[in-house]
Design a protein that fits this description.
Helix 2 (30-56) packs across helix 6 (150-165), helix 2 crosses helix 8 (181-223) and helix 8 (181-223) packs antiparallel against helix 9. The two termini are 46 Å apart. The protein has helices at residues 2-28, 30-56, 61-92, 94-114, 125-147, 150-165, 169-177, 181-223, 228-238, 245-261, 264-290, 298-312, 314-333. With 367 residues, the chain is mainly alpha-helical. It has a domain at 295-345. The chain is globular, with a radius of gyration of 26 Å.
Length: 367
């Protein structure tokens, strides 16, 4: 009995230490891991496409990869350059927006005081203006931070090239490690499943973001919102962040509409329109483009988004979801760990009459 208890305690201690070490690695090596993970996701999503080009042309494989990456990152770079320029133009009018926002917040505080909410007397327009100026530095730093990430952008390009060029190394590894044909086939199926899931997720998310950006652009044009193309791209990018991205984008755009149009009803209408657009995305476009292969339950998605944000910021919010799917696939494939994948899976649908409740509450005795 004591030996069994000690063995269990020993395993628990080792797993706890391993988890702590992984957390430290994720935090203190994120400058290396974030570009590498982006490159890994792009490589996994692009591998089939690049391989097909290689099969149907006589162009050297290295040149195919270079041309593919040049076009891909030229498009991504153009989007981010446009996004940065437009953001700086908007921030140039930040003084005017600060004045309007401070007045709106002051009016809101007066209205709240009128219906019984106690508001301190020093909450006047000048107080709100100072508060907004203090927090405006965060937005400016975010805008300038895009330009300072050029080195990370170059790292992603180089990592992606080498991952695509040396993709066959994984085959040689499997051949040397798995002498048994059955084990080799199992490993091969695991890699193919990871490729399939990652490709469907990355390509699906890109198409979803593009659809949302196009639809929201026409929506912003119809509402007459300033910098419609900028906010369409912004909302498309925010839609890539599961669970919390769209609500954050709606709040930001609604606040901007409130400042520029001086109308609460206008901000409410545009928020409702964006909510309907998000509803169409979740219930029509997402199932159509991504299917049900990303079988991670909603709570696990939310948890990994928060966890990814804590470790790697915005990149973690996007990257931790496909990583969670890959983790689930690996857990499912191992007999020793398959039961842990239950926490990432959707619960099975069972008829109400056949359901077994883990917790049974005692029934009250009839008098």
């Amino acid at each position: 009995m004591d030996n069994t208890h000690n063995s269990t305690l020993h395993r628990l201690t080792l797993r706890t230490i391993l988890l702590i070490v992984i957390c430290f690695i994720l935090i203190y090596t994120k400058s290396v891991l974030i570009p590498f993970t982006w490159a890994l996701m792009i490589s996994l999503a692009s591998m089939k496409f690049v391989s097909r080009i290689k099969e149907h042309t006589r162009i050297p494989y290295s040149l195919i990869i270079i041309l593919y990456l040049f076009v891909l990152f030229l498009i991504i770079g153009a989007i981010f350059i446009f996004f940065t320029i437009e953001l700086r133009v908007l921030l140039a009018d930040s003084g005017m927006m600060q004045d309007k926002l401070s007045l709106l917040m002051n009016e809101l505080s007066v209205q709240l005081k009128g219906i019984g909410f106690s508001i301190p007397d020093h909450f006047d327009p000048e107080y709100f203006k100072g508060l907004i100026k203090e927090n405006n530095g965060i937005i400016v730093n975010m805008a300038s931070g895009i330009g300072t990430n050029l080195w990370d952008f170059l790292l992603v390009i180089f990592y992606t090239f080498f991952l695509l060029y040396y993709k066959d190394i994984i085959i040689h590894f499997a051949e040397k490690k798995y002498k048994n044909a059955e084990d080799y086939e199992r490993f091969k199926n695991l890699i193919l499943q990871i490729l399939d899931i990652t490709q469907q997720y990355i390509v699906g998310m890109f198409l979803l973001g593009l659809i949302i950006a196009v639809m929201s652009y026409f929506l912003f044009i119809a509402f007459g919102i300033k910098a419609a193309l900028f906010f369409a791209i912004f909302f498309g990018i925010m839609s890539l962040i599961p669970v919390i991205g769209v609500p954050m984008g709606m709040i930001f755009i609604g606040l901007f509409a409130l400042i520029t149009k001086d109308s609460v009803s206008y901000a409410i209408y545009i928020s409702i329109a964006l909510f309907i657009l998000n509803f169409l995305q979740d219930n029509i476009f997402r199932p159509m483009l991504m299917g049900s292969k990303l079988s991670v339950n909603a709570f696990a998605v939310f948890f990994f988004v928060i966890l990814g944000g804590f470790f790697w910021g915005v990149s973690g919010m996007i990257l931790f979801i496909p990583l969670a799917s890959i983790l689930k696939i690996i857990l499912d494939r191992s007999e020793m760990s398959s039961h842990y994948s239950v926490f990432l899976s959707e619960p099975p649908k069972i008829e109400r009459s056949k359901q077994k409740h883990f917790i049974q509450f005692p029934k009250k005795a009839k008098k």
